[in-house]
Design goal:
Layout: H1 10-20, E1 31-39, H2 49-63, E2 74-79, E3 82-88, E4 92-100, H3 117-121, E5 126-138, H4 145-153, E6 162-166, E7 171-179, E8 185-192, H5 197-218, H6 220-247, H7 252-294, E9 297-298, H8 305-394, H9 405-431
Parallel strand pairs: 5-8
Antiparallel strand pairs: 1-4, 1-5, 2-3, 3-4, 6-7, 6-9, 7-8
Helix pairs in contact: 5-7, 6-7, 6-8, 7-8, 8-9
């Protein structure tokens, strides 16, 4: 069967559709958005994704909206006057509702009314990101920069306010990255008059992704603190083992057992935290990329998003990286200690084996000398029996030779002994 060229392969079209089926939304300001990201508390990467789709279908059925395909990982549909965009990610699912118009009072949370509380209570996970976005327009050519800055400052908490010009000055975005009394993070976008719908959609999407990936990466921070606490304890234990290595050689075997037990606990901790640390690093990289894509510029001397991240977010990520590095270093040091101790134990065993072999050699020498003595005695014994037999055999012929029996036996003794000795020597030579 001839394989299809890659250009005509179904996989190529599947991948191409996956890449292009999630376009940025086309938004017309003024408008608002409500965003949710839901993640299972543990084992999210291996979760039953059918539960996520079932939860989405439950929301769509409330509005009589069309269902997604059975194996879909994204879905976009109108819900009354709003537009819903649903996406399934590796560890979480996200719901974004876009609605025309803005509230009279900024961020009053009306956009979240389309997410029923009973439906949220049945979510297969917990909310890790909840965001409100307010999008307006202004003519930057005629607007006063200080007035616009002051207006945006009233939307959020001024103490942690960030305001930036983004996308080559096409829009101004503001946020305080704080959770309000309703549990939402707030973003305000003021776009220049005439900005394209797709560009406005890209700005909103990148802000939402920045917040979500930041929260997802922060899931590694509690793990990092736990790792730091445990590595401190195991570090002290390893130091004690090194002290025992340098002081007492008589307990090397028990020390090796303790060291191997410590190494097992360390590797277990490495195994349990590897995925979360890897995911944290990946999410942090995505946060960095999304902020770069915004192409920030300073606005009215205010703090930019990148500066806020550098001051408040990056230390947490550095803590995660430091915890991972400390754990890896502790694992490597434990392995070196185990190698050192094993080497010393092997040297001691080799010395003991040397002494055993030396004693075995001494015993072998003694056995050889004993064997030679026994062989000498055996020559005498064999010769005695041989002479006796020959004496009985040749005794009738002794009178004919003019010899007495004892004279015949005396004449046979030396030749017989010599013959037995020569035969034994020849046999030993053949055996060697």
């Amino acid at each position: 069967m001839t394989e299809k060229p890659i250009a005509d392969h179904p996989l190529r079209y599947a991948l191409n559709n996956e890449l292009h089926a999630r376009p940025f939304p086309e938004l017309t300001a003024p408008c608002r958005a409500a965003y949710l990201a839901i993640k299972q508390p543990s084992g999210a990467a291996k979760r039953d994704r059918a539960q996520d789709r079932a939860h989405l279908v439950a929301l769509l059925d409330r509005f009589g909206a069309a269902h997604p395909a059975p194996e879909a990982t994204h879905h976009a549909v109108s819900l009354g006057r709003s537009f819903l965009k649903w996406e399934m990610h590796s560890e979480f699912v996200s719901y974004t509702l876009y609605a025309d118009g803005v509230e009279e009072r900024p961020f009053d949370g009306n956009a979240f009314d389309l997410f029923p509380k009973s439906w949220l209570a049945e979510a297969p996970g917990v909310v890790i990101s909840s965001v409100l976005v307010r999008m307006e327009t202004a003519d930057f050519a005629t607007s006063s920069m200080p007035d616009l800055s002051q207006k945006l400052a009233t939307y959020v908490v001024s103490e942690s306010l960030t305001i930036s010009q983004v996308v080559d000055g096409e829009a101004v975005v503001a946020s305080d990255f704080r959770i309000d009394e309703n549990g939402h993070v707030r973003f305000a976008i003021v776009a220049n008059t005439g900005v394209s719908q797709r560009r406005l959609g890209r700005i909103a999407q990148r802000l939402l992704e920045t917040e979500t990936y930041m929260n997802a990466s922060m899931l590694g921070f509690p793990v990092a603190r736990m790792v730091v606490e445990q590595t401190d304890e195991m570090q002290d234990e390893l130091t004690g083992i090194y002290d025992r290595l340098s002081e007492d050689k008589s307990k090397d075997s028990s020390t090796l057992e303790d060291l191997l037990g410590l190494a097992g606990r360390i590797e277990n901790l490495v195994s349990r935290t590897a995925f979360r640390f890897g995911a944290t690093a990946a999410y942090a990289k995505l946060v960095e990329q999304r902020i770069k894509m915004l192409r920030e510029a300073r606005f009215d001397g205010r703090q930019m998003i990148s500066e806020f991240m550098m001051r408040r977010y990056e230390p947490a990520m550095r803590t995660c990286l430091s915890a991972k590095a400390r754990l890896e270093d502790l694992s490597a040091r434990t392995e070196r200690a185990a190698d050192l101790l094993r080497t010393r134990v092997d040297v001691e065993n080799a010395e003991q084996n040397k002494q055993v072999l030396k004693r075995m050699d001494q015993r072998a020498g003694l056995q050889l000398r004993l064997q030679e003595t026994v062989e000498g005695l055996s020559v005498v014994a064999i010769s005695y029996y041989a002479v006796s037999l020959l004496g009985y055999l040749l005794a009738p012929a002794a009178p004919a030779l003019g010899l007495e029996k004892y004279q015949l036996i005396a004449a046979l003794t030396l030749p017989v002994v010599l013959a037995v000795w020569l035969i034994g020597k020849r046999v030993r030579k053949k055996l060697k």
